[in-house]
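re the bet — no i am not wrong, look at it urself. input seq straight from the record:
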Amino acid sequence: MLLRGLTPSIFSKALLAGCRPLPPFTHLFVCMADHFEADWGAAPFSQQQTRVSRWMNDYRPSVAGIADSRGRPPQHTFFCPIEVYDPRLMEQIAALTRSGFGDVEIHLHHDNDNPEHLTQRLVAAVQALHQRHGLLSKDASGTLRYGFIHGNWALDNSDPKGRWCGVNNEITVLRQTGCYADFTMPAAPHAAQTRTINSIYYAVDDPAKPKSHDTGIAAAVHALPPEDSLLMIQGPLVVTSPLLGKISIENGNIAGSQPPSEQRLANWIRAQVIVKGQPNWIFIKVHTHGAQEKNSEVLLGESMRGFHECLRRESLRREFEYFYVTAKETAQLVHQAEQGLQTPNFELLGWH
């Protein structure tokens, strides 16, 4: 019996990814995308403050002494839900990221929405984050840009029950309001999972239909993005352990019940999320819900430190360089790969 949320086609592709040998590569980019929901479980403000304070107090010591191949500490991208935006909490998160430990992007849960209201909400959030907290960045044209994760996985009205969105042209709205890339997938075992897996690609919106990102055009070396498209950066999705009779989904989620490990790292690499034509650069976008207490215990504890040490050992053994990057930097490195660069140019990263 197939695992919930996986059609036969998706199951077959994920199974193939889980069974292939580890590929050769030279550069590994690791992006932590946190659905940082301090209000999870309808928490009162006092509990939300406690959750945020845990990160403000413990993140720095949790990564002390840890560095990637260019001496940079782990980076944490907080995708903060704008529907419950609180400037008091946001300013604390912004202060942590300004200290060099990550970035803030946009997360949104909504239901039965419409394009006009969604546009207004996104524009207001972008302005508030930038003007009140100095967050987000402007590109060369002066446009404020943001990365996006959809709540409840229902990007572009993709929940088959018709819940948790309502906007069939959401990809267009995101693009027009400054979104540089979406980081929602994978969703499995949720039914909103796309047929496209383990990919970096461009989705072209069909404003009359939901789930336009179900398929798309692969990001590729020396290939221009399709007109009016949105970059989609997926995390790993593989089916593991079929030969032992214990089939499970590896979806890149780090949680209290899914701590990081050497085996999981191998599966993330096996997924081979790359820009087509540049197999030496592998992108690993993992996700979490870091405000939840059971998950913050893992993310801020010895389990995560052990993973970073494992990553260091593997880089020496397999002779690759690894880099901790934010969501924004991940997208910009994708564009460097598209341009044909063989070595990442970190001096060129960053909007202002």
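see?? The domain at 8-348 is CATH 3.20.110.10 (7-stranded beta/alpha barrel). told u. also Residues 91 and 275 are 35 Å apart (CA to CA). so pay up
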